[in-house]
Amino acid sequence: MNHYDAKHDTADKYSLRVRVFSKLRADILSGRYAENEELKEMAIGEEMGVSRTPVREAFRQLELEGLIQIIPNKGAYVTGITEKDVKDIYIIRSLLEGLCARWATEHITQAQMEEMEENVYLAEFHAGKGHLDQLAELDNRFHDIMYEACNSKLLEHHLKDLHQYVLRVRRKTLANANRGPKSNEEHKNIMEAIKTGNADLAEELAHQHMINAYDNMVENGLHEAYG
Amino acid sequence: MNHYDAKHDTADKYSLRVRVFSKLRADILSGRYAENEELKEMAIGEEMGVSRTPVREAFRQLELEGLIQIIPNKGAYVTGITEKDVKDIYIIRSLLEGLCARWATEHITQAQMEEMEENVYLAEFHAGKGHLDQLAELDNRFHDIMYEACNSKLLEHHLKDLHQYVLRVRRKTLANANRGPKSNEEHKNIMEAIKTGNADLAEELAHQHMINAYDNMVENGLHEAYG
DNA sequence: GCCCGTACTATTGTATACAATTATACGGGT
DNA sequence: ACCCGTATAATTGTATACAATAGTACGGGC
Questions:
Q1: For the whole model, what pTM was predicted?
Q2: Which residue in A17, A99, A162 is closest to B92 by CB distance?
Q3: Beta-bridge partners for B68
Q4: Is A49 found in the same domain as A89?
């Protein structure tokens, strides 16, 4: 099997570098690699059927995203997330999500508003059925919608960067049956504040949403991560 | 002249990739390249006496830092910063710098406190002499000290990322003779709040410091960038 | 037995060769 | 003159070869 065969295993839409980057990112977030585990260029490349070149380039990006740490002439290691990191992230997000909700109130498009409403009601349905996976997925998506709606590439960028860490933490255990529905109720309130154009309320609710998410996580031993 | 000669032109302390990354970053921030200018791998490599490999890796990092945008199969372009971007940055920073000042108050080390004091008094001296370049340099450093003192790698990372954009904007014209000394006065107040352990005050002052910096910039046609 | 140096191996760092893609220039057809 | 397809050149994308560095195992000296 040469490299060109492997190239056709999956969608060709993206360059190899992007494919490697995306896969590694997903694998790290999904907890496939343990914290502080060493990533070897050759091993990754062989597994994905590509040479070291795109792997190395993907590494540089992962490093800047904070998912791995590269020690020169030594290796690439999956970054560990401490409890303090998680706490810091939620506090930082509590500020920025508030700002984001404010800006979203001012700039959200009709299409985005509709997707947000749909998201909340769909989540309500899955909450009633106890579909925790779908609930978690919709939870993530709610935040992404708001990030996109705030009309600031910069804020969106930083919030997405922070949000992804949450995904890693959530992975550490199964979703909590209580927080999911509660989180979605808060989303609903934020959504309605945005819809009615009440930026002050939206900001306050989004701010509190993060604090609640963090408090819940602490109560459950820092394992849950809704919000 | 082959590549190995060039390797010894400057300090060998860092890998070529890091050297290329640092130089390109500095060049972009210094305004050497115009906005939307295309960066060619080969040209950069030849100029620095390295092959395309480290240049490409540096590109990936610069892209993630937001300094360039890479269009697949096409090229790398210096990102443009709009006036709205600048405004967004200052608002985001006004929140995060406040939080940073709070945390710095709680965690600053003695060495950091001393450097901060030294920074303020040295800046006072240069302000009196009208040394605008040194003033600008000390201004940047003051913020870096605070970022490091806040004891949060995450907050530090995001603030440094935001701060670097300011450096690009400042470049667009010469430093303003008025804002520099005013900015340092505000630094002095922040420094003293931190020193006396008044976290609430430090947060508020740092928050206001950003707002003042932005207002001043607007007054001067979005050209100045102290803070 | 322990220390230390040396050879060997594994891995990363860089350069270069080649493939694929995009941009450009040219020339014929209308 | 203009449109459009083809050839050509320029540039990026990827693979591979080679260099440098770091880690490891072995063996001699004490």
A1: 0.85
A2: A99
A3: B78
A4: no
- A225 DSSP 8-state letter: -
Find the residue in A nearest to B18 (Cα).
A72
Q: pLDDT tens for residues B177-211? A: 678 888 999 999 999 999 999 999 999 999 999 99
Question: Residue B43's domain is classified under what CATH number?
Answer: 1.10.10.10
Picking from B118, B121, B164, the residue whose alpha carbon sits closest to that of residue B144 is: B164
Span B2-47, pLDDT tens digits: 333 333 333 445 889 999 999 999 999 888 999 999 999 999 999 9
> Amino acid letter at B63?
E
What does the pLDDT read at residue A13? 59
Q: B219 and B115 in one domain?
A: yes
Cross-strand bridge partners of residue B173: none
Ranges under pLDDT 50 in chain A:
1-12, 172-174
- Give dist(CA B170, CA B150) in Å, integer: 25
Last residue of a domain, one of A24, A50, A78: A78
Q: Where are the beta strands (DSSP E) in chain A?
A: 38-39, 68-71, 75-78
Of B60, B153, B158, the CB nearest to A158: B158
Same domain for A127 and A69, yes or no, is no
Q: Which domain holds residue B163?
A: 83-226
CA distance A157 to A150: 11
The last residue of one of the domains, among A46, A62, A78, is A78
